[in-house]
Amino acid sequence: MSQTLFRNLNLLDPRWDAARGGYEVLVEGDTIREVSSKPIKSKAERIIDCGKRTLMPGLIDCHVHVFLTEVNIRNLESVPLTLLTAKASELMRGMIDRGFTTVRDTGGADWGIKTAVESGLIAGPRLFISGRAIGPTGGHSDSRRRTDQGASCGCCNAMVYCMAIADGADEVRKLVREQMRQGADQVKIMCSGGVASPYDPLDSLQFSEAEIAAATDEAKNFGRYVLAHAYSPEAITRAVSNGVRTIEHGNLIDDKAARLLKSKGGYMVANLVTYFEMKDRAAQFGMSADQLAKNDVVLEGALRSLEICKKAGVKVGYGTDLLGQLQTEQSREFVLRAQVLKPIEIIRQATVIGAEILRQEGKLGVVAPGAYADLIVVDGDPLKQLELFLDQGRHLPAIMKAGRFHKNELR
User: Fold this and answer.
1) How many domains is the chain built from?
2) Are residues 53 and 63 in the same domain?
3) CB neighbour class for 340 (10 Å; exposed up to 12, middle 13-18, buried from 19)
């Protein structure tokens, strides 16, 4: 197998508190073979002189939507799957350009687009897919207009491809089984109202306890887990009490709900940047005044939710949840979180904690023997300057995924 040797670098393994000089890293095939504070003896075909730059694991975004290619999701009503795939490929290339070598898609991406990336047909990060996000009639996954009757046609309506409706424990169980049959790595359900959905109140409770329990039971039986869209303490409590492993958003979480989440060993995947970007720019893409009003409510609690989770000891993953044209701001999440968290805490959220959420401990998010060779080189120390993650990867001269360079300006 081919080998690549990285030398003359400062190594930032997020399990440490700071980068360390004098290290070398040997990659063989798609994995890291050796990490040493002494010179590594090898016959590597490629030797990369990092010029004292920082070498660290590739970034992990645990909440993306590669198929939600429009800010105003109504525009997806007239998008066929072929066009959707083309637009998604452009979005995914942008993600890996920004150093995100792994993402968890939380509703939409299927085994087809995942296979296209894995086989090299499309450039993009590793995909952990949820299939269609499942919600009840009238909830956050119900994309129909008020005038629609029955189910929408799925041949040319991309929203139908990304979302599914189920009512009652039996229907939920069947749809969860279907997502797993289709190759889902995890299952997404809706437990509260949402911003982008036009008709459901933000504080509405979606899915009963029995419906949530049916979803988590089936996922557990299949060796998978459930993530839940939930904003309010009531929705978070209902979800976590019935087996949900990760809470998505959680902006309105309170101390009691955070303590429950901690006691159950669950995670929260926060995503602040989407609310800031929607407030600034979503109106120009056609988002309604009602939706923007809901956005203001959750925006108010965004930073506070990180403080509450930190106090309770809840592990928080890095997520962005950006839609369509706003996805270029994926890395802005770093500087927003820096208002309440230390840089190393944020970097851990985007690496080692992300790997835990994906159940890929020791394989992703670290620079260690046996881990996947997903690596980025940074022009400086991101612990001192998180802004190095901005500017669409301009400050990342090398990006490697599975031992292959997506980008290499250090030849």
Assistant:
1) 2
2) no
3) middle
Angstrom distance (rounded) from CA 405 to CA 410: 11
CB 202 within 8 A of CB 195: yes
For residue 162, being part of any structural domain is answered with yes
Contact 65, 324 (CB under 8 A): no
| Assigned token pair, 41 | 């003896």
At residue 93, the pLDDT reads 98
What CATH number is given to the structural domain containing 134?
Answer: 3.20.20.140
Instruction: Give a yes or no: residue 257 inside a domain.
Output: yes
Do 209 and 242 lie in one domain? The reply is: yes
* 351 CB-near residues (< 8 Å, 6+ apart): 14, 56, 57, 59, 60, 364, 365, 366
Cα–Cα distance between 223 and 101 in angstroms, integer? Answer: 24
Domain carrying residue 378? 3-57+366-408
Domain boundary among 330, 346, 375: 330
For the beta carbon of residue 28, count every other beta carbon within 10 angstroms: 18
| Across 20-29, 153-162, 259-268, least confident range | 153-162
Query: What one-letter code names the amino acid at 334?
Result: F
Q: Which DSSP state fits 244? A: -
Average pLDDT over residues 373-401: 98
H or E stretch covering 376? strand 375-378
Biggest CA pair distance of the chain: 69
Phi and psi based region of residue 372 (left: phi greater than 0; alpha: psi -120 to 50; beta: remaining): beta
For residue 87, CA distances in Å to 79, 96, 286, 355 come to 10, 15, 19, 27
CB 346 within 8 A of CB 11: no
The reported pTM is 0.96
Closest CA to 279 of 269, 267, 289: 289
* Residue at token pair 């492993």: 245
For residue 358, being part of any structural domain is answered with no
What type of residue is 391? Answer: D
Assigned domain for 187 exists: yes
Same domain for 26 and 131? Answer: no
Last residue of a domain, one of 272, 303, 330: 330
User: Which tens digits make up the pLDDT trace of 233-292?
Assistant: 999 999 999 999 999 999 999 999 999 999 999 999 999 999 999 999 988 988 888 888
Nearest to residue 253, comparing CAs of 199, 304, 217, 289? 304
